[in-house]
Amino acid sequence: MLYPSIDKMLGIVGSKYSLVVAASRRARQLREGEKSELKQPRSHKQVGIALEEIYGDYIKLKPQIGEIVENTKD
Questions:
Q1: Are 47 and 24 in contact (CB under 8 A)?
Q2: Which residues contact 18 (CB under 8 A, 6 or more apart)?
Q3: pTM
Q4: 43-54 CB burial, b ≥16 within 10 A, e <16
Q5: Closest C-alpha among 20, 27, 21, 34 to residue 49
Q6: What is the Cα–Cα distance from 45 to 32, expressed in whole angstroms?
Q7: Computed from CA positions of residues 67, 20, 16, 13, in that sequence, does the dihedral angle turn out positive or negative?
Q8: Do residues 61 and 22 touch, judged by C-beta distance below 8 A?
Q9: DSSP state of 35
Q10: 61 burial class (0-12, 13-18, 19+ CB within 10 angstroms)?
């Protein structure tokens, strides 16, 4: 069984795409030396720790507003 489960994560994040992007960005920060606030993470890999941080509300996600692309064809 995976922890945290994808169903519980989608309740927090909203979409699988947003979850993947947020977890990968945070995993990269951890790999580059940032410290995690988790006392005892279940995972020893950066992606797992990032997912645990998102699930435990240690990481707050900011909604990104997509760029509006105007149609230039007349």
A1: yes
A2: 61
A3: 0.75
A4: eeebbbbbbbbb
A5: 27
A6: 13
A7: negative
A8: yes
A9: P
A10: middle
Q: CA–CA separation, 12 vs 6, rounded Å?
A: 10
Average pLDDT, the chain: 80
- Structure token digits, residue 51: 């997912």
Indicate the pLDDT class of residue 31, thresholds 50, 70 and 90: very high
8 A C-beta contact, residue 39 and residue 53: no
Looking at the chain, how many residues does it have? 74
User: Each residue of 1-14: b (16+ CB within 10 Å) or e?
Assistant: eeeeeeeebeeebe
Which two tokens mark 69? 């692309």
Read off the tokens for 42.
Answer: 């279940």
Which residue is listed with tokens 């435990």? 56
Strand positions, DSSP E, the chain: none
